[in-house]
Amino acid sequence: MKEVLVRLDRCVGCHSCEIACAVEHSESKNLFGAVTEKPVPRKRIYVEYSPEQMIPVTMICHHCEDAPCVSVCPTGALTQDEISRVVTHNPDICVGCWTCAMVCNYGMIGKHKERRVAIKCDRCPDREVPVCVVACPTRALAFTEVEDFSGSIRADAALTLARGIVGGGTP
């Protein structure tokens, strides 16, 4: 099963993923139209900075296996697909109690205060690849299988190590 995964070493903190996400979840689906919409469209991915080193860290919903947000939602606005594990949100039945946001271990459920509903990553169900991944100019975001992703990380590390040894320097 494919997931959105992050290569923190490639993220430069450009916020392209956040902008693309907000535009994708707008009525107009267009940057210039989205900025004039009321209420303003909200992002579902977050670029934060580590407090000590000011390194950008991209944060996105993990669609947890036993998602606590789903189990505490009093209206059933949050549901989880049994096969893909994707947690989806139905804003039409959300009452904006924010209980889901309080129990999210990763802080990935936002509040759309104007509409009084929770918002979260839906992995862009109408797209083959989530828009945040497509928009990332440094390819810090990948939509792939975990095994393939970790294999590519190991391959990159081995290549870096080999270049260091062949070049006579320390890796």
Explain what the structure shows.
The structure is a single chain. The chain has helices at residues 16-24, 31-34, 68-72, 99-103, 131-135, 146-166; strands at 2-6, 46-49, 56-59, 78-80, 87-89, 110-112, 117-119, 141-145. By secondary structure, it is of the alpha+beta class. It has 2 domains: 2-60 and 121-166, Alpha-Beta Plaits (2-Layer Sandwich); 63-106, Alpha-Beta Plaits. The strands form 4 sheets. Strands 1-8 form a two-stranded antiparallel sheet. A two-stranded antiparallel sheet has the order 2-3. Strand 6 (110-112) and strand 7 form a beta hairpin. The longest helix has 21 residues, at 146-166. It is globular, with a radius of gyration of 18 Å. The two termini are 34 Å apart.
- Indicate the multimeric state: single chain
Distance between the termini: 34 Å
* Overall form: globular
How many separate helices? 6
Strand order of the largest sheet: 1-8
